[in-house]
Design brief:
383 residues; FAD/NAD(P)-binding domain; D-Amino Acid Oxidase, Chain A, domain 2
Length: 383
C-alpha cells in the first residue's frame, strides 16, 4: 500500500469498482525507505494540495557541491517541491482509498495467485489463517523486491546494473535555512556512480543519504554515508538508519498481461538517474486506473486491451524516463574533473539567467563547448 497501489485503488473505487488492497506489514508506511522528496507539480496534479501532516518541508530550489567543494545554487520565490513525511503520506493515500470505497487490509500477506478462467484466485495469509479471494484483475504494487509480477509471467529480478544501492540517515543537528533547499553532493569520494543528498525536514533535522553504483567504489552505500557524515556534517547526529535498492531501468518493462498490470517500483517506474519514484508512481497509477476502469466496463481485461496502459505510459512519462536512462549512461562516464567543470559552467549559466538572460540545455552546451571541448565530447548525445 505505497503511493501507486493506494492511488490506483482510490481511482478505481471512485469509478465504482470493488477493490481490495493487501499490505503485508502491520502498519502502512512503515518502515520508510525513501528520501521523501517530490516535485510539487506532479504531486498537486495527482492528489491536490497535500495535507499539512504529509509535508515536513516545502523547498524553494536546490544546491549542488562538486568533488573539490565548488557549488551551484538555485533559489526561487515559490515552493517547487516537498520533503514529505512518507509514513503519514502513505497512510493518508490509503485512507483516501478506503474513504472512496476500497477495502484495505494490513497485516495480510499475498502468497500466490493462479489464473482461472477470466480472473485470478489469490492466496492470502492473515492473522495466522489462510484464505482465497477471486478477482478479475491483479495489480502488482509490491515494490522493487516484489513477486506478484512473476505470478503473472511478467516480472523478473532486477540485474545489479539496473539498481541504485542506497543508505540514508535521519539526522538532527543541522542548520535550517530561511528558504529550505534540497542539496546534492557529487564525486567519486562522495558517491561513485551516483550522488549523495541532504533533504531538509525542518527543526534542525534532515534526511542525508547516498546512492551508489553497486559495482563501483571502495565499499557499499553505508560506507559512503558514514564518510559523508564524518567529513561534511560532523555536527549531525543520526537517529534513524535505512538501506535498500531502487530500480534504475535501462529500458521499459512489460507492464501488462491478461488480467494483470504493474505500477510503481514494481513496474520500474523510477527515474533512472535520480531514483525518484513518488511522482511517477502517482502518474502511472492514474493512467492504469483510467485504462482499467474502461476495460472493466467493456468486459475485456485481456492483455490486448490493457496494453493501452503500456502505450500511454510509453508516450508520456515513459518517454521522459528513456531520456533519463540515456543520461544515466552518460553520468556513469563522467569523472571528478567533469563534474567540477560542469558545475562551474552551470553556475555561470544560472547567474546569466538571474541577470535576465536566457538559459536552456542548448545554452548550457554552448557554454560547455566554449570552455571545455573535452567535456562537450562526452555530452554530445544530449544534443
Amino acid at each position: 500500500a505505497g503511493p501507486a497501489g493506494s492511488h490506483l485503488a482510490r481511482r478505481l473505487a471512485e469509478a465504482g469498482r470493488e477493490v481490495l488492497v493487501v499490505e503485508k506489514r502491520p502498519e502502512i508506511g512503515n518502515p520508510v525507505r525513501c528520501a521523501e522528496a517530490v516535485e510539487a507539480e506532479p504531486l498537486l496534479a495527482a492528489v491536490g494540495e497535500p495535507e499539512a501532516a504529509w509535508v515536513a518541508q516545502g523547498v524553494y530550489g536546490g544546491w549542488g557541491e562538486g568533488p573539490t567543494g565548488e557549488t551551484v545554487r538555485y533559489e526561487g520565490e515559490k515552493v517547487v517541491g516537498y520533503v514529505l513525511v512518507r509514513r503519514l503520506f502513505d497512510r493518508g493515500l490509503a485512507r483516501r482509498a478506503a474513504e472512496a470505497g476500497a477495502m484495505v487490509l494490513a497485516r495480510t500477506q499475498a502468497e500466490g495467485a493462479r489464473r482461472e478462467g477470466d480472473g485470478w484466485t489469490v492466496s492470502l495469509r492473515r492473522d495466522g489463517g489462510k484464505l482465497e479471494v477471486r478477482c478479475r484483475v491483479l495489480a502488482a504494487a509490491d515494490g522493487v523486491e516484489g513477486t506478484v509480477g512473476r505470478w503473472a509471467g511478467v516480472g523478473k529480478p532486477w540485474p545489479l546494473t539496473e539498481l541504485h544501492s542506497c543508505a540514508q540517515a535521519r539526522v538532527v543537528g543541522v542548520e535550517d535555512e530561511d528558504k529550505p533547499l534540497v542539496g546534492f553532493f557529487l564525486g567519486e569520494r562522495r558517491a561513485p556512480g551516483g550522488y549523495a543528498w541532504l533533504f531538509p525536514l525542518g527543526n534542525g533535522r534532515a534526511n542525508v543519504g547516498v546512492s551508489v553504483d553497486p559495482a563501483r567504489g571502495e565499499g557499499g552505500a553505508r560506507f559512503y554515508l558514514e564518510r559523508l557524515l564524518a567529513e561534511r556534517l560532523p555536527g549531525a547526529r543520526p537517529v534513524e538508519l535505512s538501506a535498500g535498492a531502487i530500480p534504475a531501468p535501462a529500458r521499459p518493462r512489460r507492464l501488462v498481461s491478461d488480467g494483470f498490470l504493474a505500477v510503481g517500483d514494481a513496474a520500474g517506474h523510477t527515474e533512472p538517474l535520480s531514483g525518484g519514484g513518488i511522482a511517477n508512481a502517482l502518474q502511472g497509477a492514474e493512467l492504469a486506473a483510467e485504462v482499467l476502469a474502461a476495460s472493466l466496463k467493456e468486459g475485456d481485461t485481456s492483455r490486448g486491451r490493457l496494453v493501452e496502459y503500456e502505450r500511454r505510459w510509453a508516450k508520456t512519462v515513459g518517454a521522459s524516463l528513456k531520456r533519463y536512462a540515456r543520461l544515466r549512461r552518460l553520468f556513469l562516464k563522467l569523472d571528478d574533473s567533469d563534474f567540477t567543470e560542469l558545475l562551474g559552467i552551470m553556475a555561470r549559466q544560472l547567474e546569466r539567467w538571474r541577470e535576465g538572460g536566457r538559459t536552456s540545455m542548448v545554452s548550457l552546451l554552448t557554454g560547455v563547448a566554449t570552455r571545455s571541448p573535452r567535456l562537450l565530447a562526452k555530452l554530445r548525445h544530449l544534443l
